[in-house]
Amino acid sequence: QLRAFYDLGLWDLAPLKVGQIEVVPRDVFHALFEPRVTFPEDKDVVIVRVKALGKKDGQEAEATVEVIDRPDEETGFTAMERCTGWSAAIVAEMMARGQIPPGAGGVETKVPAPPFVEQLRQRGIEVTEQVTVK
Length: 134
What we know:
There is one protein chain. The chain has helices spanning 3-7, 25-37, 79-96, 107-110, 113-122; strands at residues 16-18, 21-23, 46-56, 59-69, 126-133. The chain is an alpha+beta fold.
């Protein structure tokens, strides 16, 4: 649905003359859109659930990993800021320590999950993991 705004040019950065003034379409979009979708009294929650089917020890199994996070009232960080910011910081630290090999690649193959998850937990982000053998 947001594609229509893009197609209309409302995300363009090049100034556009409207009457006697120049406006940046993206600035107009933000001025119109943001007040209608921002609710400061509502607190955000991040919920991510990943289910995977496979085998464990030769038997059919289902693994579920769930991340739940809420805003941090002490720092003022929203749940989304915490989950995106801390994740990026953890990966940067792991790269600096040489825990992530150099070169391009997907996060799912380059970032070792156990130390990454442990770092999330140390920052108060709830991560649960469950494997059920069927």
